Amino acid sequence: MTVKKTKHAMPEQEPKERIKNFKEVPYGYDEETAIEEAKRCLQCKNKPCMEGCPVEIDIPCFIKYIAEGDFDKAAEIIKAKNSLPAVSGRVCPYEEQCEGVCTIKKIGEPVGIGRLERFIADYERKKGVKNPRKVKSTGNKAAIIGAGPAGLTCAGDLAKMGHEVTVFEAFHAPGGVLMYGIPEFRLPKEIVKAEVEYIKKLGVEIKYDVVVGKTISTEELLDKYDAVFVGTGAGLPRFLNIPGENLDGIYSANEFLTRVNMMKAYKFPEYDTPIKIGDIVATFGAGNVAMDSARTALRLGAKKSYIIYRRSDVEMPARDEEIEHGKEEGIIFKLLTNPIRFIGDDKGRLKQVVCIKMKLGEPDESGRRRPIPISDSEEVIDIDTAIIAIGQNPNPLIPQTMKGLKIEKWGNIATDKNGRTNIPGLFAGGDIATGAATVILAMGAGKRAARAMDEYMRSKKLKTNISKKHKVLAY
Ligand code: FAD
């Protein structure tokens, strides 16, 4: 049997059209294409793709069912391990995970595992997701802090094990970065909402507008619940720390995207959210957050949208697909270029940025080649808006307010590989423990922590029961 060497293409909106709207860019596979793509899978005995999946989906098995046209069974296999498949099927960096180790890569492109996962998740949602089976209650109560992918995965898995789960979320909506960070054209909010509904159907309760560390303390939660998971993410923006950074017109990517997503500036004029971007926008950084910001600026009407990055295209951390989409949409990439100061007008509004050219030296501690400034290479660029997207640190509130909690160098919570912190009953995972990473890694961390919490709560109960029994016998 000969295998098609390239993935089946996924149809998408034309670049000229899509920069005028916030609708999702790719349309997804139809049934016929999904079956054809699934038939490219070699059904390897050693399943390397599964080792590359942090949430442990039986990938060859669900693909086999797609190839046979049994989409319901494929959905069952995915859902057994992953409660957010329409999300991971859209934003997961498969190229570094399951697809990165696919056997067919030896002769061509890997199987489009992400595209197939998305196809099944969309098929199931359109058809109407089946209500999950009720599980016998263990009587244990778990609290989850943060309704991002780490917290939601942990909550869903604990509920499937029969524990009573309550999620405490600071915002008025669930999803974390899925909702307030990643734009509508990459991950429609309706899809996140639908996946959260499924988690609620598992029995999970979500309480909104609760800022743990302010509204209620972590200690109080530890008193009231048998185990607590912290999944509060990395939403603390880093800045360039250069002169002029406080000028009017300079946003952190976090603020910019939150205004667009959570405060619905993307639905202008229906929602009159204040966001002023002018004609020329420069985004600093080249990760997913930067690509999202630069592409959002175009959709909000910027005539020019720059990505300004101090390294070369080889080191850009964003997913290849996002970079490609950005290029198609007309984002201007100014690489090996570093800002050194912002210049404002007499009203304190941003009008220019001064940059210098860089060259690459030896690799630094991140493994990427170190950027070195080239002297006398200053360049002044006219801009109205700057978006700083050079990374985020863990949210500091819980690390700062929970007494005795062990914290690492960058403010992240120290855990073992199963999310145990140094405080009994307190677990953590996702960006708050690893620093800013990916959706699937956060989900994997939530999953491992759920198992460790289950074990902790069961053994705690066993100990309590044994000591009660001893007391009765002694009496
Ligand atoms: P978060 O998603 O940050 O969720 C944390 C939740 O905790 C939030 O809802 C927050 O409101 C809540 N919270 C915080 N503090 C408190 C408190 N004190 N009390 C109660 N609740 C609290 N990853 C990918 O894999 N692919 C991508 O394409 C991708 N694109 C991205 C684009 C953007 C713009 C951003 C910002 C990130 C992107 N990422 C991407 C990274 C990914 O989104 C994160 O790694 C992931 O969301 C981390 O999940 P989390 O659950 O740990 O944290």
Descriptive notes:
- The protein starts with 14 loop residues before the first helix and ends with a helix.
- It has a five-stranded parallel β-sheet with strand order 3-2-1-4-16, sandwiched between helices. A five-stranded parallel β-sheet has the order 6-14-7-8-9. Strands 10, 11, 12 and 13 form a four-stranded antiparallel β-sheet that branches.
- The chain is 35% helix and 16% strand.
- The radius of gyration is 24 Å and the shape is globular.
- With 475 residues, the chain is of the alpha/beta class.
- The structure holds flavin-adenine dinucleotide.
- Residues 91-93, 145-151, 168-171, 176-177, 181-182, 210-213, 231-233, 235, 257, 288-289, 292, 319, 395, 397-398, 430-432, 436-440, 442 line the site of flavin-adenine dinucleotide.
**What is the number of strand segments?**
16
Content of β-strand: 15-25%
Structural class: alpha/beta
* Terminal-residue CA separation: 75 Å
Question: Mind sketching the topology for me?
Answer:
Blueprint: H1 15-18, H2 31-38, H3 48-51, H4 59-67, H5 71-79, H6 85-91, H7 113-127, E1 141-145, H8 149-160, E2 164-168, H9 177-180, H10 189-201, E3 205-207, H11 218-224, E4 227-230, E5 236-237, E6 250-252, H12 253-261, E7 280-284, H13 288-299, E8 304-308, H14 320-328, E9 332-334, E10 337-344, E11 350-363, E12 369-373, E13 379-382, E14 385-388, E15 392-393, H15 397-401, E16 426-428, H16 431-434, H17 439-474
The chain binds flavin-adenine dinucleotide.
Flavin-adenine dinucleotide binds next to helix 8, helix 13, helix 15, helix 16 and helix 17.
